[in-house]
Each structure stands twice: as C-alpha cells, then as structure tokens.
Fold each of these.
Amino acid sequence: MPRMKNTSMRAKARAAVVAMTASVGLMAAVTPAHAAEYNVTDNCSVPWISCSEGDLWLLYNSKELAIQDGHYITSWAQFYGNVSDYWGTSQYQGSTLTTYRYVFNGNGNGAWQYVKNNAASVENCGVDNYRVYYNSGYGGTSQYFAHREPWGDCNLTNLISALKNENASQHFA
C-alpha cells in the first residue's frame, strides 16, 4: 500500500508541475507589450526607414501664407519616398511597439500639429516626382508634383481643394 500512495503522490506532483507550467505560459501570452511613441518631422528620422533627408515638404499653410520676406513663417514636415500613412509608422522591436508620428516642425503656424489631413501646400525639393493622395495607402484623389530642375528652386504648390487639409499618403510618381 505505501507504494501506491507514493506513485499517486508523484503523479499528483507531475500534474501540478504541468498545470503550473501551462499557467505561466498563459500569463506570458497575455502580458501586454510595451509601447513607445515619438513625434518626428522627417520620415528619415525613423530608424527602420533608409534615406538621408526628406525632399518633399508638406507645409501647414498655403504658399501665400507660408513664406514672408524670403523666410518660412509656417511649419513643415519632410518626407522621402513612399509614405503610406501620414499618421505615422509602427514596428515591433522585441516586445515593444515603437510608433513614430509625423508632425509639423515648431517653426510657426501649425507647430507640432499632426501632418495627416493638415497640409495646405507642398514643396518638392527633390529630383523625384511625387503624388500626394487623399487616402492612406495611396488611394482616392491625388495631385502630381514635378521634381525640381538640377540646381533649381524647389517647386512650391498649393494643394488642390480636394486635398487641402485632406491628405494622407504620398508615392513616387
């Protein structure tokens, strides 16, 4: 008889270890990930985006209100390449979700406002052509912005009425 009790105790101990291991696994699965959020004025400041500097500038004000006496009096944000959502970009880095939100710089009107659905004009300072779109993911109404000529001035253009303060993404054109 004592042998049976001993075997029974071992089986119970194994079952308890299995149950404890399973519950620890479940607790690990439901533990929330950490989150980090940053505001940037240039998508080239995002660690997982490879570029040197933005060459398409979105300005908070229309071109008539953006520059005075040769100086910018409005805020702007710079972008390079395809940007599927002006709201920002996120990526998991281990168990931490890191998000970069795109905002206008602190230069003047519109300082630190989110870029998505807040731009009134665009300045293309690059050698690439772009399209700015109404929807995230390059959808809806769009407007074409030609590149600047080598050593030429940047092309500052107002967004069409359908895109003014209703702009969500950009793509190489």
Note: Confidence is low (pLDDT under 50) at residues 15-28.
Amino acid sequence: MKKTILLFALLIAGTTFAQDIKNVNSKNSWFKVGLNAGVPMGDVDDVSSFALGLDLKGQYLVTPHFGIGLTTGYNHFFGKDGFDDFGIVPAAGFARYYFKPKGLFLGVDLGYGFLTNIDNNDGGLYVNPQIGYHNRDWNFYAYYQNTFAENDVDIRVLGIGATYNLRF
C-alpha cells in the first residue's frame, strides 16, 4: 500500500510540474550522470564496508535558482564478514536550490528505494539530502542517504558524489 500511495503522489507531482514546462531547452533542462561513494552507517555498517553508486537525473529549472526532476540509479553495498552484497535502486523526485549560477546548492531526493539481493524486504522510503558546489557542467556534493526499509531496517550512508550535466 505504501508503494501505491508514493507512486500516486509522484505521478500527481510530475503531472502538475509537467503542465508548467513549456520551453524545455539547454539553458533550463539537462540530464545528469554521475558516481557516488559512501560509508555505511548504523546497523548496515555491520554487514557492509563500502557503497558505490551510479546517479541518473533529469532536471528542469523552474526558476534560475530552483530545479526539480526525477532520479534513479543504483547503489551497491559491498558485503563484509561473510555477508552478501546488496543494492538500492531509487525511484525518486528531487528538488535543488541554487544560490547563484555557480557555487553552493542544497538539494534532496525523495522517493522509494527498491532493495536488491535482500530476502523479505522490498525497500522503503528513500531520502537523500545533499549540499554541494555546482558550475555549468559539474555538481560535486556530500550526501546523507537513508532508506527506511520494511521490517525496521534503516540503510544509511554518508558519502560524496559528482554528476556531469548533459544538455538537451
């Protein structure tokens, strides 16, 4: 039921924002491709030593300072001490605030994180706040990712990442 509600909310938000998008061009929209790396924290630190991920984002600038979009990718957690590797595939929306055309930004990804290679747990609420530096082509950021998975499992990661902007 949680998945259905979240998917419905994302579809409504996407439809609402899509109605405002009239002139998509290389100055206000782009595709972001990047990598991230992090250190598992909390309970997941007992079963994983390192996380490495791929970010895929599509962004539209609503104003010169505020961007919205959709994000997905894959975050791989390397198992330790006999535990198997596992992963998270996020399906999320995101928002970013850019203070200036070049410099500091704040952002958050919010959606659902689908777990891979974990029995009896499909995933849960995915939250990924970020703070970073951006210019025309690159975004460099620090993040604190938390997936509030089923069965009271919180998968937390503290890390860094970078994305490259591909213009339409």
Note: The domain at 2-167 is CATH 2.40.160.20 (Porin).
Amino acid sequence: MKSLRISILMTCLATVQASAADMGPQPPTPPGAETFTLGEFRITALRDSVNVVPNDGSVFGADVGPNAVAEVLKKAGQKTEAIELSVDALLARRGGEAIVIDTGLGPSIPGSLAGSLSLAGVSPDEVTTVLITHVHSDHIGGLITQDTQSAFKHAVIKISEPDWKWLQQQPEMAEITRVIAPQVKTFNPGEDVATGIKSVRIPGHTPGHVGYMISSKDQTLLDVGDTVHSSIVSLAKPDWAMGYDTDLAVGRTSRREVLTQLASRHQLIFAPHFPYPGVGWIVSRDNHFEWSPKK
C-alpha cells in the first residue's frame, strides 16, 4: 500500500491529463455559470471541465479493488468501467470584491473557466483574490494562461503554507510555481482569508488541504474542496481509501467525520467534483451518505 501511495503522489498533480489519456479524448465542456445569493454574497458555480477516472483500483476503492467499486456504480445505475467527475470552481462577489475559489484545469486541457467567468460578467483582470483549496493540477491549472502568464494578474493568490511548501517541491510544477510566486500569500489552515470567508482544515488529501466557509447574515456555504470526489462512491463508501489522498488512513477518517458533521448540521456545500453545479446537502443514510442537490 505504501508503494501505491508513493506512486500516486508522484503523478497526482497531472492526474486529470493522465486520466483523459487513458479514457480517450474528452469533448470540451461548455461554459456554465449558476448564481444564487448567500447573505451579502453573490455566489456563482463555474463550470470548467469533466474528468473521467478509470475504475482500475488505483483511485477509487484503492484498498478494495475495482470489482467492489463496480458493484457500487452498478447499484446506482452507472457505467462500471469509469467514474465521471466534474471539475468546477466557485466565484464569490461582494461589493468590489471578486473572489475565485480554485481555478480548474487551465490551458493544457483546456478548461472552460474563462468562458464561465465571462458568463458571470467577470473578467480575469477583475478578480481580486484567488483562494486555493489545495495544489493539485485540476485546482491550480487555471492560474496560468496558454502563454504561461498569470491568468489573474491583479489578484492575491492565497494558498495554505503547507501546500505552498509542498508545491515548490514538485519539479513538474516548477513553471506554474515560478509564474504565480509573486502573487502568493500563504496562511495557516483555520485562519480567515477574506472578510466573511474562513479556511477550514480538512486533513488527509494534501499536506495543507482546506475547505472555505463563506458566511454572511446567518447563511453559510462550505466549499469542501477534495474532501469528496464522486457523489456516488465517496458517499456510499466513505471509508474506502481514495488513491489521490497523501495519507490514505487520515483521508478515510477525515472524510467520515466531515460528512457526518455536514449531514447533522444540514450544511449547504459546494463540491467541485460533484455533478455541476455541485451545490447541495449531504444526507445521512444508515452507515453511508447521499447527495441532495440544491434545486
């Protein structure tokens, strides 16, 4: 298991590209922008792309194998050879602030984030802050443009201190690290990162993986980052190992604890890999969970 984890960690920053290659070229995802009000914030779910992950035992159910995963998918009426995941981002606007949480895949796929921002009426130059849940490529790829320039040149880019340190140790990410470095401001997980937005430590996925709790006028929304990936497998079997996690055991424990809290508190969440727009609630069902999307 240790060798499997090391192998996955060495490739997870390029996971989406590899998965797309394994499953064949994926059609472009059309832009999308769905907006709702949360207190004084206008929140917009931004479409970026779709990632098709092979059911090969390396990612979902890394400790139980593809046959067990296939059974869960079959029971849900889904194809069993792969798991389709959205790759999306979030925009929070209040006053003159335009805050983007995560940036999708970027120009190498390419993703549709720029088009989705345009649908929301925001240009990249108007983005004031970019908040990163963690530094995997499907969350930070959109920080640079096709010609390797900063995509949000007027924004402060906030990344947790542990993840920024970890990112700088990844040689395959040296270019993006170099481009964004002048704009990066780090924080400790659990700290406030903007007025009305607090980082929430959710361990196991990367060294500094966080969610972001957005609060205004007694209304809250938690961007859960990569606490969960599949709205089917991650909820039906939260205790199965997720191959993308840096610490499989901590990831399992963290996932179960967070899902239990979300369900008991009826906490509205944004899950960037759940079916677009990824906004809704976690519902407890016996020893597992289900997804209830916001209508």
Note: Residues 2-217 form a domain with the Metallo-beta-lactamase; Chain A fold (CATH 3.60.15.10).
Amino acid sequence: MPLHYIAWKQALDEWGCEFPEDLFYAWGGRPVADIIASLNERQGLDMPVEAVALRRERLYRGLLPQLTAVPEVLQHIEHAHQRVPFAVVSGSTRDSVTASLTTLGLLDRFDVLVCAGDYTKAKPDPEGFLLAAQLLGVPPQSCLVFEDTDMGIQAATAAGMAAVRVPQPWQR
C-alpha cells in the first residue's frame, strides 16, 4: 500500500488533485477507476479516468523494485503454502497484482487471483471474496482473510469469513 500511495500522489499531483493518506487507506480495495471518478466529483475536477489510471500504474511499476512483503503475513504464506489454498482479492488490475506478486517472488503461492474486472461490486461488498472462495472450492466460513483496509474487513465479514487486520506500516 505505501508504494501505491506514492504512485497515486505523483499521478494526481500532475492534475492538482488532493488525495490525503487517510482517505487513500479508507478507500483501499476500491477499483482505480472508481477512485478517480470519486476524486473528480469531490474536487470538481475533470481528470481523464483512463489516462490517470495508466499514469498511476506506470508510476507504481517504476516503484516495484522497492516493494517488500509484510513479514508476518509472509510467514503465514510460507508456513501454509501447499497445505492451504490461497487467493488474492484486489481492486487492482490483474497485471498490477501479477507484477507485484512476481516482484515479491510469491506469484506461485496463489492458486486464484480475483482482480478488478473479475467482479462487479467493489469492497465492502463481499462479491470478490465469495468468488475467490468459489474458485478455490472452499466454503466461505472456512476462509481466513488478511486485510489492510476497513472496506476489506467489512467485505470479508459480509462474506462470512474470518479476517485478520494487517496494520498499516506506521502501526506495525
């Protein structure tokens, strides 16, 4: 999330758009296009959604060499890999999620990726999590979600899944 925020700030600064960090984390899990449209509406701007989204993604890709995993979450992944099926549910595009997981050397740990465009209702709606459970062949009540946003926790709870809150970097 910290690198995503840097990319967002850089892309939006080019348009004179404010995106406070607390709002960024509050909106975590929302699709990029929805965020840009909401910022346009809130600030009376007319940023071209697709162009800003592409710029933000390019900036994020440039930051990928700095990407690190949350150590405690990484420990869970390594411990349970090949014993428990894993999925990622993200508001980011499949290309972005794949690039991030590849950078971290974790792409092969995940059986399913559910990304923006795979579902219609964004977090806090449970649709993405329910789709991941279905694709994994696991009942929702048997799933454990690691989430770093309030909307993600709400979505997991609405899906009937247990959730672990991953604190923001400044809270760890």
Note: The chain has two domains: 2-65, 71-171.
